[in-house]
Design goal:
Layout: H1 7-23, E1 26-38, E2 43-55, E3 59-63, H2 70-77, E4 85-90, E5 93-95, H3 102-108, E6 110-113, H4 125-135, H5 140-153, H6 169-181, E7 187-191, H7 199-216, E8 219-223, H8 227-230, E9 235-240, E10 243-246
Parallel strand pairs: 3-8, 3-9, 6-7, 7-8
Antiparallel strand pairs: 1-2, 1-4, 4-5, 9-10
Helix pairs in contact: 4-5, 4-6, 6-7
The protein binds adenosine-5'-triphosphate (ATP).
Enzyme class: hydrolase
InterPro entries: AAA+_ATPase, ABC_transporter-like_ATP-bd, ABC_transporter-like_CS, ABC_transpr_LolD-like, MacB-like_ATP-bd, P-loop_NTPase
Keywords: ATP-binding, Hydrolase, Nucleotide-binding, Transport
Length: about 250
Amino acid sequence: MNYCATHNGLYYEKAIVLFYKDFGMICLAGYDLCKSYTDSNQTINVLRKATLEVQESELVCITGKSGSGKSTLLHLLGLLDSPDSGKVMIGGNYVQSTMPEAASIRNLELGFVFQFHYLIEDLTAQENVALPMIISGVSHSKAIANAVSLLNELDLAERITHYPNQLSGGEQQRVALARALINNPKIVLADEPTGNLDPEHSNEIWDMILKLNQERGQTFVIVTHDVANASKAQVTYNLSEGKLEKR
Ligand SMILES: Nc1ncnc2c1ncn2[C@@H]1O[C@H](COP(=O)(O)OP(=O)(O)OP(=O)(O)O)[C@@H](O)[C@H]1O
């Protein structure tokens, strides 16, 4: 969905969000996902037919103890890795990380936020945010204008020309969130987005995510250990013994 500045545009966007919520369109799914890792000594079966369906505009949290396979699952859903068996569906199509289109699906349909922000230290906040848009072929000036508008929306208007090391941890993670959103992806996949932050900055990021989800209908799949904030999600799955169970 596009961000619209006009009243009519906003009305139209909200109507689409309500439509998706009413009719429950599945925008991301993993079916019977299996993944194991083998080293010289042993094979670990991390995912054993893990299945989930995410509907458009949903906020889904995935919890589970350390080592249960949450990041592995997110990597499969984000086409960063391939399952041994099982299928991933994005926007109604079955997709694979080895497809020629995978890179453009990752850049245009998906946004990623990780525990560590991975901002480029030599680029300002606005340049970091604009980068995925420039990579997708949009002109530098238009990408910067969009980045500034998005940073403004995430309450970072005063920080657009700051470098990452001039920002607080929470601000850095909000810039990373803006970077994930710049190409207006259908789905944002976040792996412990607040895992590296203190409670105050952590709540700041969760508030932003909830706002984006509620006001724009942005779909989020978030891996987290933060059970208190995860309880704010519409759907929570627990990953245990390689399988997902709805809570
Ligand atoms: N590339 C890899 N090669 C071998 N083993 C791996 C690899 N990636 C993950 N693992 C193993 O798979 C298991 C699941 O890892 P994963 O990172 O998905 O768990 P997690 O639930 O995200 O853990 P945490 O909450 O601690 O981040 C772990 O035992 C891990 O050591």
